[in-house]
Design goal:
Layout lengths: L3 E4 L6 H12 L4 E5 L6 H4 L3 E3 L5 H10 L4 E4 L5 H6 L1 H22 L2 E3 L2 E2 L23 H20 L3 E2 L1 E3 L1 E3 L12 H11 L2 E4 L7 E5 H13 L11 E2 L3 E3 L1 H9 L6 E4 L3 H8 L8 H7 L7 H13 L8
Parallel strand pairs: 1-2, 1-4, 2-3, 4-5, 5-7, 6-8, 8-12, 9-11, 10-14
Antiparallel strand pairs: 11-13
Helix pairs in contact: 1-8, 3-5, 5-6, 7-9, 7-12, 9-12
């Protein structure tokens, strides 16, 4: 990777990925794009372009302008939001990906795009979910992700586009507030712990889902993109995760730092149904074997870092 274009650069993943890439590859070599402009570090530390990823011509024009050799395509609507606006989700998630793939094909560039544990469905094995298994999701977001995995495989096999991707679990970050995902309670709970010493979870007790800390997610993207392509068997949808946790696990971890913290429940049936259709924990052996995936953070270290960072910042503005 020498010249990188990132779509969705102001989102949860993009805002941290851009800064890490600029640190590693040079600020002028990482072009951040998003549908909106916000005055922040991403906007102020290197090239930035306004891009609606459904605009094929502008996508290609910007990529050509900067002569990019790598596209990190992150722009999408997340799971809960996609259920509220399924047609918009299809247009953005699938139309945007297709435009990214066509741009990569035109420029002979690498393309990374994330899939998700949302690509699995209620009939998928819930324990130690295999890398290769039944995928019949019941959400628009999940349908988009499965279709995206297949589309990336197609562009690799048909056109030789160097496509790569992972199935992200829930991602936890202190830099970007929750943004419409089913697993976002795992971020929200830390904000409320600092501000209110209590949290009301929209996900029910005993609901286990895979999670990982954003620094591990960022490292995984870069490690995969720098890996020897000849050793990649699965290429576009590697299972990755750091831990399988339920809301009460977060509460216990927080209580070691904030003893008076309390957790209550007011279950959202829409997001609970999505969570129930996903695995409890997934098997990451393929990612470990093919490109050396190894997360560094567990629940204890994530909790300590989240509470320290949020406690020392002004981002904990929760009503």
């Amino acid at each position: 990777m020498k010249k990188i274009l990132v779509t969705g650069a102001l989102g949860q993943i993009g805002s941290e990925l851009v800064m890490k890439l600029r640190e590693l590859y040079g600020k002028d070599n990482v072009v951040a794009t998003d549908i909106r402009k916000v005055e922040n570090d991403v906007f102020g530390t290197g090239p930035f372009e306004i891009l609606d990823v459904t605009d094929k011509q502008k996508f290609l024009k910007i990529a050509r302008k900067y002569n990019v050799d790598t596209i990190m395509h992150l722009a999408s609507l997340l799971s809960a939001t996609a259920e509220e606006k399924p047609l918009l989700a299809w247009d953005i998630n699938m139309g945007g990906l297709l435009n990214g793939l066509e741009t990569a094909r035109e420029l002979d560039a690498q393309l990374f795009t994330p899939s998700s544990i949302g690509a699995f469905g209620p009939n998928t094995p819930k324990q130690d979910t295999p890398q290769d298994t039944l995928q019949r999701p019941t959400t628009m977001y999940g349908v988009n992700k499965v279709a995206g995995e297949l589309l990336c495989d197609y562009y690799f096999n048909k056109f030789g586009v160097d496509t790569r991707g992972v199935r992200f679990p829930g991602l936890i970050s202190y830099l970007t507030p929750p943004g419409g995902g089913t697993t976002d309670y795992a971020v929200d709970i830390y904000y409320h712990a600092i501000k209110n010493q209590s949290y009301t979870s929209y996900i029910d007790k005993g609901t286990y889902m895979d999670m990982m800390y954003m620094p591990d997610a960022i490292d995984a993207i870069i490690q995969l993109m720098e890996a020897d392509g000849s050793k990649l068997i699965h290429r576009n949808a590697f299972n990755i995760t750091a831990m399988s946790v339920a809301p009460e696990d977060f509460a216990r971890a927080i209580q070691t730092h904030i003893p008076n913290f309390t957790l209550k429940y007011d279950v959202d049936p829409v997001r609970q149904a999505i969570a129930d259709s996903w695995p409890n924990n997934i098997d990451v052996s393929a990612a470990k074997q093919e490109w050396g995936f190894q997360p560094k953070y567990d629940l204890t270290s994530i909790t300590q870092d989240m509470l320290e960072k949020l406690g020392n910042s002004s981002v904990n503005k929760v009503s």
